[in-house]
Amino acid sequence: MLDSIINAFTKGDLADLNSKMLHSAYWGQHNAKFYGSEKLNMILGNWFALTGKCTVLAHQTIKQNNHYVVYLTFEPTNKNGTINYVFWLETNQLMVKSVLAIVDTVQLAALNQDSPEKVSDNLPSTDPLVISDYDQQDNLQNNIAWPSNLISKQAQNVEILDQWWAIWSQKQLANINTLYNDDAVINLPGDKHPQKRERLFEFVLSKINTLTRMFTQIEDIAIEGQDVAIKWFLDGDEGENKIRLPFITLLKIENSKITVDTTVCDILAFNKNFSTSHVFKQPTA
């Protein structure tokens, strides 16, 4: 599956990747879901229009049960920058049932010095926001999910994952210094280069200060050895407006410390969907 994705996004090999997907499969990207045989044509067409030919600088996979997570760092032939792209696949062990893909669109816009507005104009319309999705945060029927609710409490690093989740779900910013290694590599949405712990602190704090109410929820976790992938979302109120922002975070945990954190979200698709939002004021890579 890794080779199929790489060949599709570097060589335009649509047929091989299409053959791995069930006819009923959907591809979710840019906060929209695409169905049918043409879904990959549009995704790849937009990709090559913005990037041209690319090579893969680095890749990582995390497999657990029916989850297959692929993280790729692409570099276009003009070598003007790199692009982080994460694919979360749900499979039946043989075929792909669904894909959630998140590409860093700010990095994408920076490749050819295109304005974010130009890239945003090429993004598809997002799916409508369903207000009933917010019932869980307004009228909770059950406890908020923690990593330890989704994986065995005896699993390796489960306490560290709960403490990491407290950074976002409980605004426990002090955990950043205690959980992350001194020289941890932190890749954040829209940033051109890896960051240090202080930048992560600022990134989380900016969301807390912008939203009048903030609610986070984990959707799924995949673990393979020291590598963890978490699919989650941030909901919130920004004044009178409700927002939703999907994330995928990949962590590497070594000797009880987080040594690598790669978090991706689609900033330009979010800004297009929530045009009055100030969650991301000036997205630049």
Automatic annotation (TrEMBL):
Pfam families reported in the protein's UniProt record: SnoaL_2
InterPro entries referenced in this protein's UniProt entry, alphabetically: NTF2-like_dom_sf (IPR032710), SnoaL-like (IPR037401)
Stretches assigned to the SnoaL-like domain: 162-259
Superkingdom of this protein's organism: Bacteria
SUPFAM superfamilies per UniProt: NTF2-like (SSF54427)
Gene3D superfamilies: 3.10.450.50
Protein name, as recorded: SnoaL-like domain-containing protein
Native source species: Brumicola pallidula DSM 14239 = ACAM 615
